[in-house]
Amino acid sequence: MSEDIVQDAKAELSGMAKQGVRHPSTKPVLGGLAAGALAGALLPGLSLLAGAVIGGGVMFYKRLRP
What pLDDT digit, counting tens, does each position of 24-51 carry? Predict the structure, then answer.
């Protein structure tokens, strides 16, 4: 993992924490959380929490590196 992606992630998370839903990344990441949780509910062997974490993580990464 390169150093610049870590710095970008810190800045993005900080902005999301300060601005809440007004931040442009918050809604897509929350959508990824919801979609992942739904997938976790429908797929055997995947829990709601695991699905939500994976879905949110994928969307957060896509916001960092489109």
Answer: 999 999 999 999 999 999 999 899 999 9
